[in-house]
Amino acid sequence: MQAQSEIGRRSGTALYHGWLVVAAAFLVAMFGFGLGFYGPGIYLVGLQDRHGWPAAELSSAVTVYYLLGATLLFFWVGHWFDRYGTRAVVAIGAAALGGGLILLSSVAERWQVYAAFAIMSLGWAVMSGAAINIIVAPWFDKRRGLAISWAMNGASAGGVVFAPLLSFLIARFGFAGAVDIAAAAMPAIVLPVALLVLRPKRLGEHDAPDSAPADRPTAAGANPEWRIGAVLRSRGFVTISLPFALGLTAQVGFLTHQMAFLAPVMGAVMAGWAISLTTFAAILGRIVTGFVVDRLDRRLVAGANFIVQALGTAMLALGTTQTALYAGCALFGLGVGNMTSLPGLIVQQEFPREHFARAISLVVAINQFSFAFGPSLVGQLQQASGSYAAALCLCLAIQLVAALIIVSQRRSVA
Known about the structure:
Helix content: over 70%
Number of helices: 16
């Protein structure tokens, strides 16, 4: 029996535990993004309908929520994963996100909304894009891009599943009942999976017999010291964090206003289909990129991703027919998913693996600090000009600048 098991491992027929980790990370991303990223907009509508509180004040609570999550990512989350392991950190994050949602469902004062979102920010920080990269990366060498792309599709699945599900539950059980159901379901599903699947990788456990580490090599016996100041000043880090911070600011800004931009032109129903097309294009783009990114220069892939989104933005800005607007949404959507998976792949390629968790946490934190202001930036430009044309032109310019920055460092990458 042992001999057969060994033959199975050598022939590649035995199930590699890393793929179970990918499935677990997919689930973590689905709940983390579904309830922590796509959910806040739905919670705000529910709270406004229930209490009659001003939308502007509720929106500021979401901004604080994202900023607190970014602060946790910047200073602590990478260290927590290194010290306590993925199993414990994800379990605590699921409990925090669920606990914050339960508090949100029972708020009676406006300050309690801020308190609930503050608790939820811990769960969002440790179940967002940085966490998915940290969970999956140690398990894969040669096929890392494919694995992370599949895991990060959980983020898109979260939008596809939870946006309509929460709306249905609110209509059926009311806001408090719907949020309580979601809050109870998440730890009930995520915690057992985390405890059973998210174990450390054992010494000598490889995803393929011929796989070679894709991380930047570390000299034998070397243990590079982590110096956050030096990392933040390094050209390599700047040319990863800055373009994705710019790109995500444009992306989140547009996606937040996508319905408001499209509905007056094509109607609410057709605009809803355009948003669904954007989401499915995001999944398709991430899957296709996952199959090829490990064989290509990852910075060039990222640059191409920015260009594709820029083309989509241009079509949206210039389009006057439904066909052109649908095409613009599809092109824009092809780049949406890759914006969260590509930063980790580039960090893994250019930073020592000892620094990966902290480096990717810094990148995601900077991204989150930046994109927290994307919706208000697009909204202010729309209000000042009376249309979304100026905002779309700014997004287009941002995407082109991001493409130039991300490829500017590629010659120095070994």
